[in-house]
Amino acid sequence: MTKEQLFDQIKKKHSYLCVGLDTDLQKIPVHLRDLEDPIFEFNRQIIDATADLCVAYKPNIAFYEALGPKGWISLEKTLNYIPKDIFTIADAKRGDIGNTSELYARAFFENLNFDSITVAPYMGEDSVKPFLLKADKWVILLALTSNPGSADFQLLQTDDGTDDYSRCLFENVLSTSKSWATDEQLMYVVGATRPDFIQRVREIVPNHFLLVPGVGAQGGNLADISRLGMNQQCGLLVNSSRTIIYASNGTDFAEQARAAALLIQQEMAGYLSRYLG
Amino acid sequence: MTKEQLFDQIKKKHSYLCVGLDTDLQKIPVHLRDLEDPIFEFNRQIIDATADLCVAYKPNIAFYEALGPKGWISLEKTLNYIPKDIFTIADAKRGDIGNTSELYARAFFENLNFDSITVAPYMGEDSVKPFLLKADKWVILLALTSNPGSADFQLLQTDDGTDDYSRCLFENVLSTSKSWATDEQLMYVVGATRPDFIQRVREIVPNHFLLVPGVGAQGGNLADISRLGMNQQCGLLVNSSRTIIYASNGTDFAEQARAAALLIQQEMAGYLSRYLG
Asked: How far, in Å, are A62, B58, B101, B109 from residue B115 at the CA level?
């Protein structure tokens, strides 16, 4: 998917919501658990209930990998079920030496036809480049994550190569990596638990899309993120997983997921109207 | 597996060789490709040919993941075939927020019974801790990798929190993470293409095992690594993948793999004798 197609979806749906498909056998409603493929059945109903309210779906690959080979089959069925005009994110956080990253790219962009994959930056440029070889396929690089451990290394003061130590590691990750691809193929993960940092991110990458996790269960604030992070093409995908998909664990789970997604979408419509005009 | 059991194997086999199972359908001998599970058949013969010469096997998970669900089945069969006294490493380079890392730990330590997994440090402590919850299961944390991109971030001068900017990021990763677990559960990846850094690593983590990739195809030097990196319990696992498993692509591939592994093992026996006495 191109950046323009993504922005068109955002304008059409008045939404920059990404629904995280962190689908866990232990958490889905009891009445689904005896079905042949409960994970896919849950996802199918969540997608049916939310597809007109969101512009992206983000399966968290760990949840499928933890189920072994049948988890990959559920993932593939889910991906094929998502409407083609909705952006898909493999939240896999991969990254390895070049020939290995090539194989991960094959796994997620060829065998599975994801639009994008999340990638960890620690191993540098040649670990990321193999994911950028296909037009309209995206890397979403971890910059600032939303977990407590993000402070361990991402916030260390770091030399940028010019004896300037005023920047944190995540800022050097942004400034170095933005030359690896254009904003038509590269996005960044920027955690919502630290909205003050969104301004610092925007100083370095004004035009890139940011994938913002952590709204809802992790305590981010949609108003701050939208005010500080939105650019002229929206430039934000804000993810919510548990708040939406586990809004109810009864037979009304899909209906309640829709209600939770609708609340967020309506708030987003207001910000889009205010900041994009 | 405990550290003591691993060291016992090293003494018994006079070897600290890890064989990397980077098994690629495009590279295995033609005569295997029509079998029902060529990947497993290749691995089985490599294991039969090298099990008395090495102390660890390291399947590179990308190579299996790229094959979809059937790749996971080949991986599981391979893991079950490896003799139980040989250390197993899931080279997966995972790492995510806590509840997600828990699921990756389930995938590699429960569904698959690996002894260890490689983990990327960028997301910090709570992304690593879920892999440390089971006794005798190991995290092998990326510190200094062997690819060109390691220079992008791992070698940035970084404040360690005390306004001391003399250390590189990889050194801060070592000094911070070594408190997360003992050397009975934590090892580090340290690339062999920079043997001068092995001394700096040993100043920070004198007792931990180091997994050293990059001997052979990536150009590392076994003599330097062994002289600079060996400690009183050996403390080294040196990996070789392509040099061994693709020593020949004919019907003699297993025999040639054994010959290549034997050369390395014999060199290692010399270093063990010299440095451990």
From this structure: 19, 10, 16, 7
